[in-house]
What does this fold into?
Amino acid sequence: MRADGAEEPPAKRLKAGPPRRAPPALDERRRRLPVFQARGRLLSRLRSLDCAILIGETGSGKTTQVPQYLYEAGIGRQGIIAVTQPRRVAAISLATRVSDEKKTELGKLVGYTVRFDDLTSDETRIKFLTDGMLLREAIGDPMMQKYSVVILDEAHERTIHTDVLLGVVKAAQKKRRGLGKLPLKVIVMSATMDVDEFSQYFNDAPVLYLQGRQHPIQIFYTKQPQSDYLQAALVTIFQIHQEAPPSQDMLVFLTGQEEIEAMTKTCRDISKQLPDGLPQMVVMPLYASLPYSQQLRVFQPAPKGHRKVILSTNIAETSVTIAGIKFVVDTGMVKAKKYSPEIGLEVLAVQRVSKAQAWQRTGRAGREDSGFCYRLYTELEFERFDKMTIPEIQRCNLASVMLQLLALRIPNVLTFDFMSKPSPDAVKAAIEQLDVLGAVERREGQLVLTPLGRKMAAFPLEPKFSKTILASPKFRCTEEILTIVSLYSVDSVLYNPPSRRDEVQAVRKKFISSEGDHLTLLSLYRAFRKVNGNKTWCKQNFVNGRNMMLASDIRAQLRDICVKLSIPIESSRLDTGNIRRCLAHSLFTNAAELQPDGTYRTVDSQQVVAIHPSSVLFHCQPACVVFNGLLHTNKRYMRDLCVVDADWLYDAAPDYFRRKLRTARN
Ligand code: CDP
Ligand code: MG
It folds into this structure.
């Protein structure tokens, strides 16, 4: 066990590990957190302030303690204290933790609400939610009357939902003050952020600093720029491993699940072949879609004589704190969304981190003692990084948020009080996209939702998926579309262990549809239902049963929304043509055609794209496809594809394609 017991998750969730001292009681751990020292001072400031910005190192106790302090001191007792999180897993695990600390059952005093999962009751006074959920709630109640305090946590991440919430909360606060209603207290929290920008936005709100624990960290840069950051990371990991004493753990920042899984395997293979006398290496992946129970493993100390090497996405940058890290290896890369309104496509791309992110990563090495950070880039390269991460709102497709703002009846989305304004081109493109989907219209010069648009906003889904559901009655395949959309609303239902690739391919064969990934997933879901979710079946077929059950639960919720909206629900049974027609009718802006030279180009903007290796169509060459999204690595890859007829696309949106063709010719 580490010297500082406060860093470990509750003992009851840990599997049997090496022998250890009994952990201190939760109350004792709460008192040991840095924020505890500041409790009195903090409360007296927060009591009198309407708005505050609270800064403190990750792990100092902001998220778990501040809501409890407020509650215990009777601040905001007249309503609910909301705490937002950009990540679903964070919201759930924090609510669990805080209800444990309060010795109450989860869902009573302390609860959580995330998309498709609500564990709250009338008794709930401290509520953790994803920022997206609070925004959704605001549609029904723009003044947020249920809440007395809104804590916008991890604000530095600048997710699009947090950014929009900033504006919504600010407006609600002002309105409530004007009407003499219960005041709304707003607290913005983070470990690192551009405090001036936040403070100014909230009319010069005071910034409160929490004293954290930070030890000196020695930073190393590479002498030369690295062309292959994965190779550089691998070399660095084993160099450190050969030189450092075993009890010192390592945290490596990579970009995404596939890369991390592959690297985990490589590291494990190499470590088996190392000469005797070196410490054993325990390699653990960490990324948001990893099942929660596996995420928890990274918090367990490595057995004696072993070194823990954690390969993580930027989730470990601020969202989780891991004890025992002495070395940080920073590739300087992150997978993030990028959007170019000219092409109208949003892509996930691997790109450079900002300086703020690099510093945050470095900080992970100095939580308990002095540490080392290996930056796999040169100092000159670092100097050229952006200072701050560009807010998501300035680099993503805005259609979904525009739909929500319009549902919130914000009179003019173009003049909404954003902290960082999205580019006018992106706003225009979003409105255009909603227009193409039939969701908006102009009434007396004002942009408003059409009845279809209002229905679309009722679904907690991206516009393209709510549109798919709403288009399905026409093709009499709502049952199937509900299944498909639900399957794409959870993390992958497919379990793909890299070490057993051939086996996986062999058993998957029987489910594969030559018509694409949507229909393959549909047949897998049908088979899963047929065996009633049997665990052995899941194991044999490399299906993630938990995510399948989750999809099934989401399906029931989406079906309820359909019933409420009086949408007729029929099944197309074995006819897959109608399902594909329906997908063509909603995903036509994501369509690509095969070219004579064997490449693909998107239909609307003639971008060169390729079929992602994970698609069942990877070795096929269908003439025309629609897809869910693009991933940009070394190429632009289409993911989740469905084979369609080119004619269906033009039928779906003749005006749109006519316009696109005209622009292309000009
Ligand atoms: O928000 P901040 O990063 O300042 O800290 P926090 O999330 O309130 O966590 C304070 C401490 O509680 C962490 O250092 C962890 O040791 C512990 N914690 C935990 O054990 N399990 C959780 N699910 C959350 C926090
Ligand atoms: Mg926190």
